[in-house]
Amino acid sequence: MHLLLVEDDLSLAGTVSRGLREASFEVDLATTGPDALRMASAGTYDAMVLDVRLPGMDGLEVCRRLRANEQRIPILMLTALDAVEQRIAGLDAGADDYLSKPFEFGELLARLRAIMRRQAEPATATITVGDLVIDTRSTLVRRGQRPIALTAKEYAFLLYLARHAGRVVSRAELMSHVWDESRPTYTNVIDVYASRLRRKVDDGEATPLFTTLRGTGYLLAPPSDVP
After folding, report:
1. Which of 66, 195, 199, 211 could lock 219 by a disulfide, CB 3.0 to 4.6 Å apart?
2. Could you tell me whether strands 2-6 and 47-51 are parallel, antiparallel, or unpaired per DSSP bridges?
3. pLDDT digits over 107-143, tens only?
4. Contact by Cβ (8 Å): 40, 48
């Protein structure tokens, strides 16, 4: 597996690079935002570990530009900022997951493998729940004839619910399969995304599809299918 590590702290970059190579990854290093964008745009990497604070262009902007150019490389974002708002900013920019500094190298490996595994999973071309249609090849979503614009993490959240339509999905399950996260102090991030998704999917529609079951989890299904 070929990884792009983007980190301007050369001491940390050297430590992480050595660990990744010992784990059988091939690693290239970029130390500035523009270099990261240029190297990642070549499309030859299986995943990217991207620091937020970089000279020349920050990691958020690198991520946004890659996604705007339809680069689907899995991105694990590193940040020294522990505020929920900063983590959400990274996910909204198109990152697949985040990891706050300082971190354990074993967790970095686990998260990398998880985002690459999700990228490689085969998917049914189209998933339909009521009049909600998700095209998994193009990642386009529509409700009836109305297109729904989603961030990368909103799409992953909705896709997981759609693949388990008609069944209540718990916060813990979402943490494990969408965020790869099990720390309960971060479940408020799920609530933020759930609120956004509910508005995007159901606002202005006669039939709601997105249901929050307080204290239990979330359900995607027409009202007739709600248990």
Report:
1. 211
2. parallel
3. 999 999 888 877 665 545 789 999 999 998 788 999 9
4. yes
Distance CA 52, CA 68 (A): 18
Rounded CA separation 93/90 (Å): 5
Task: Return d(Cα 183, Cα 53) in angstroms, integer.
Answer: 24
Radius of gyration of the chain (CA): 18
Helix, strand, or coil (residue 11): helix
Judging by DSSP bridges, how do beta strands 146-148 and 126-129 pair with one another?
unpaired
Query: Tens of pLDDT along 184-214?
Result: 435 588 888 999 999 999 999 999 999 999 8
How confident is the model at residue 181, as a pLDDT?
44
Question: Residue holding tokens 């990884």?
Answer: 3
What burial class does residue 178 get, using C-beta atoms within 10 Å of its C-beta: 0-12 exposed, 13-18 middle, 19+ buried? buried
Distance of alpha carbon 2 from alpha carbon 4, whole angstroms:
7
The pTM (predicted TM-score) of the whole model is: 0.56
Side chain identity, residue 176 = S
Output DSSP code: residue 59.
Answer: H
Better-predicted residue by pLDDT, 23 or 177: 23
Contacts of 203 (CB under 8 A, 6+ apart): none
- C-alpha 203/C-alpha 206 separation (Å) is 9
Residue 35, both tokens: 């270099």
